[in-house]
Design a protein that fits this description.
The chain is an alpha/beta fold and about 270 residues long. The chain has helices spanning about 35-50, 65-70, 130-135, 170-185, 190-200, 240-245; strands at about 15-25, 55-60, 75-80, 110-115, 120, 140, 155-165, 205, 230.
Length: about 270
């Protein structure tokens, strides 16, 4: 059978040179998404489609009707179903225990992958992130927000933006190590983020502008330099939303805890 074209809407056997990805999953405890989660995903997808011509591969687990949710008929958007990975040692916050599902990024049909959490949004084209990582097997941005031992500051990366090279060998090893964590109920700093920091001790640094953290608590965004704001839109004030051109996105009103206002909906 001939390999599917990389320009096809559904190309399961095509291997892209470069692609973007994110992870959408529904917890085993709740298969439905909140309106705010949906709004964050739609904001991420709209901006990604606007700013890049590269393929966007969306990993999804336990999501009812994923094609309808993500408008997967759109050009360059491909769905990639994965299994939910649950690692739940003592002390793990409920919303972190399924984040190990992110490890499926190492199985994607791309030679180089840029993974972004969808609880943030791009400011412009981010394709230079692939060249910034170059031939390195794994790149990330130093975490400036996670409360960790100060001696690790600058050596501990944030798991929300990653550039990696899929590999069957690496993928199998990561799944095997995650299984060890699950069986041993081993606690990690921030779940899969701590897990990956242990695995990739010699990671390569990306410029901070690819993962700008702490914007809601005073970190300044420089649109001419920065690429991705890793902040939930509802935590930004009106002035910040205007400065980041979010006013035209049709985002509905929510409070600072991410709860939709009564009767709110997307424009």
């Amino acid at each position: 059978m001939a390999m599917a074209s990389c320009t096809s809407a559904v190309a399961p056997r095509c291997v892209h040179e470069r692609c973007y990805t994110t992870l959408v999953f529904r917890s085993n405890q709740s298969a439905s998404a909140s309106p705010v989660q949906d709004a964050m995903l739609q904001l991420w997808l709209r901006r990604m489609r606007r700013f890049t011509a590269l393929p966007i591969v969306v990993m999804h687990a336990n999501v009812p009707s994923p094609r309808r949710l993500m408008n997967a008929t759109a050009l360059r958007l491909q769905l990639h179903r994965v299994g939910l990975l649950v690692v739940d040692p003592p002390g793990t916050l409920p919303w972190y225990k399924e984040q190990y599902t992110k490890l499926h990024a190492w199985s994607l049909p791309c030679r180089q992958v840029a993974y972004f959490d969808y609880d943030g949004f791009p400011l412009r084209n981010m394709d230079t992130i692939f060249d910034e990582c170059g031939d390195a097997p794994f790149c990330a941005v130093a975490d400036t927000m996670t409360p960790i031992n100060p001696k690790y500051r600058g050596r501990y990366f944030n798991g929300g933006v990653l550039v990696l090279r899929p590999s069957a060998t690496t993928y199998a090893h990561l799944l095997s190590e995650a299984e060890v964590d699950a069986r041993g109920r081993r606690a990690r700093w921030y779940a899969e983020q701590g897990f990956l920091n242990t695995h990739y001790r010699n990671w390569s640094h990306l410029p901070a502008g690819y993962n700008v953290m702490g914007v809601s608590v005073g970190q300044r965004v420089q649109p001419a330099r920065d690429y991705f704001v890793h902040e939930k839109f509802y935590k930004l004030g009106p002035r910040q939303r205007r400065a980041l051109d979010l006013e035209s996105e049709g985002l509905f009103s929510v409070d600072v805890k991410g709860r939709a206002a009564a009767g709110a909906g997307r424009a």
